[in-house]
Design brief:
Chain lengths: 427, 427
């Protein structure tokens, strides 16, 4: 079949496909301004400069007595130093209290220290005598206080454009009084299963089957920061395909079709969509296997990514084009971003087919003492076995036809759930 | 301060604390039956056995003509083999068609092959002549067909108890006609900030400050499979603390307080809660720094985890006790589950303090060719700088007082967002 296929497809490399999409499309990371509370997982579109010093004032690290450290120099159990309590700072409110030689003020954790004080003695290390306290040992300047700006200085750049917003980022932003920030918008991705046989009904009716591939891709889009929209499956009908795809692009940045992109008479996605007058062809086939039928056009500047319907081809197209594009659209690096683990191949792996392509193989990682071993889970592109029994994948470069047992390979983990699957599994 | 502190706290190891919680509490992974569509990220509480063979029947891999491979043995371009088209299978509906010698039937991708056929010729590799087709080369038995059960066999165990449900698992379950599965319930975790100064109002009013630590912990609970409930902050008042904690445990499996667990006069969480008659003390302090004030009781069999309020102590308590407990409650491994990366220390790191404890330090990973270097981001436990400028943490075992520049350390990534932060960052 290869000779015939080679005539129909014009395979281009993954890098070329991505570059062409980015170059010819109107896609670029778009910037929005959102509430910090809703910003988890977004990518910063601006450097964040702290508007305030943290702490804002020199503050007490514990509940205790603010002192001049010089007053405590000679304190000991035998000769405690006695200081007069001249005030009490019970809250983190602004105040103008200060102390002089021989004086102290009670301060609660996080509250602004009184003027003149440069150290704090925790309350449980003092003894109270009426209006005074006794201190039994010297404290050093700065002890148990945090100086203004010691954590973050006003004007300091603390997060940068391209940083993913994490839980601690949100805490910082809120603490710094920042309520809205500029981030890259999450790309909106329509996902459409194509095929006469597909239905969204779970009950098997009249020879139709439940469309489940878009369900799977939906979750990955979500995981990598996109907003997926599932569209009802469309039958193998040129006009319906065109109408549904065009419709989906009104509300979405990218349209992903699944199925109908190979060479049979019912493979209508490429043939109908690439012939529209407004269509700009990007790729009719990619140099990746499985997934080589993945084809891409632009419609009115927006990418339509046609993934093949066999499940391993679908996921390979998603790994190699859709997810990198999703990351690009959020201002992130779109190459080599999956977390990876080095592992030793457990068995020889022969990969003679499509040796001028990048090959994707799913592998199961096993722990072997402190190291990992990887075993390929094989099966033709329509089989789900390799996906459900694996917990990672390897990319085999062009020309490699065999990976020897004992070689070290980089195993990519596809999602946080793969990470959880691997690291917290009870086995 | 250490001597004094040692008297108040009775530090126990992290392992001991976890074992005691599990042993004395009524917590155990609880099993629920849920809809497959809502099961992403849950952990299987049962082995999953496929109720059907996949594919259910021997099916066509492409649109094409079903043939007896023996009929095609002598086919060539010069002498094509002509076969009579005796039928057409247009859908994946059940049928009883079959072919005899010299016959063929048109079959669409995924449809059941007719009886008698053992191979398929893709339609684009045939020529049609009226009621017949011509085939130009031999096909082998099994070519372009997938035999019944070749992917998954009926009765095969394909996922096991303890496996995290991933997108591909859901596709498989739906394809196999499984609509509900047994999983471990996600633990419900109440999170309560404690302190007179705390408010949920964003506008700074009257010396109160926005409570942001529970916001941060909320996201981590979510990430590790728990269902977080945020409770309004409670002031430093014994009765209110008791009431709010008890109330929260009616609807939740675990209560987490943040703040008020050290030794000052306003540190009322431990002092009030541990003295309730129904309270079973588990730990008054843990052998981990930061986070050593973390204290734990059981109230009516449910854990109350009191995290210290200084942010690095809060997160350390979450990393070392809360998240492991969350995983345990979902039937997962609760030790060494964070994804980790080996890196070379970039600078000497002195860690003399609390050398009989496990020490947590936050580090920034830098890529250095194919390797990673790690640099500690230091700051006292109240500082957020180490958290926001790092992208991982290291655990320093007891007795180690120095990590030399150039040593290899294991750097743990705290969440999928840390993974994204590290791997897809534009820098």
């Amino acid at each position: 079949m290869n000779e015939y296929v080679e005539k129909q497809f014009k395979y281009i490399s993954l890098d070329e496909a991505l570059e062409k999409i980015i170059h010819y499309s109107r896609l670029s990371p778009s910037v929005i301004n959102i509430d910090v509370y809703r910003s988890l997982g977004y990518v910063l579109a601006e450097d964040v400069v702290s508007p305030i010093s943290i702490p804002r004032d020199t503050v007490a690290h514990f509940d205790g007595y603010a002192v001049r450290s010089s007053d405590t120099l000679k304190a000991s159990t035998v000769n405690p130093v006695r200081l007069k309590v001249v005030g009490r700072i019970d809250s983190i409110k602004e105040h103008n209290l200060s102390i002089r030689e021989g004086e102290t003020v009670y301060v609660v954790t996080g509250a602004k220290m009184p003027g003149g004080a440069d150290a704090l003695v925790p309350v449980e290390r003092t003894r109270r005598y009426g209006e005074s306290i006794e201190i039994l040992e010297p404290v050093k300047r700065g002890e148990h206080v945090t100086f203004r700006g010691a954590d973050i200085e006003a004007g300091e750049s603390v997060q940068r454009r391209g940083d993913v917003i994490r839980p601690q980022t949100i805490k910082f932003l809120l603490d710094a009084g920042i309520s809205r920030i500029k981030v890259y918008a999450k790309p909106r991705i329509a996902i459409i299963g194509v095929g006469d046989e597909l239905t969204i009904r779970r009950e098997e009716v009249d020879g139709k089957k439940l469309e489940t591939s878009s369900t799977m891709i939906h979750y990955y889009v979500n995981e990598f920061g996109g907003i997926p929209t599932r569209v009802n499956p469309v039958p193998d009908n040129p006009n319906q395909i065109i109408q549904v795809v065009k419709n989906s692009l009104r509300q979405n940045d990218v349209c992903v079709t699944i199925g109908g992109v190979s060479l049979g008479p019912r493979d209508l996605c490429w043939t109908t969509l690439s012939k529209l007058p407004e269509s700009i062809p990007i790729a009719r086939g990619l140099r990746v296997q499985p997934g080589r039928a993945t084809s891409i056009i632009l419609l009115n500047g927006k990418p339509v990514i046609m993934l093949p319907g066999h499940i391993q081809s679908t996921i390979s197209g998603a790994i190699n084009i859709l997810i990198p594009l999703l990351l690009y659209m959020q201002g992130l690096q779109s190459r080599d971003f999956f977390p990876k683990i080095s592992a030793e191949m457990d068995e020889d792996l022969i990969v003679k087919e499509y040796s001028s392509f990048t090959r994707i193989r799913f592998v199961k990682l096993f722990k072997d003492g402190d190291r990992y071993r990887a075993r390929a889970i094989l099966g033709d592109s329509s089989m789900i076995r390799p996906l459900i029994l694996s917990n990672g994948f390897i990319k085999i470069p062009e020309k490699v036809e065999k990976i020897n047992r004992g070689s070290i390979v980089e195993v990519y983990l596809l999602s946080w759930l793969d990470v959880m699957h691997l690291f917290s599994n009870i086995r």
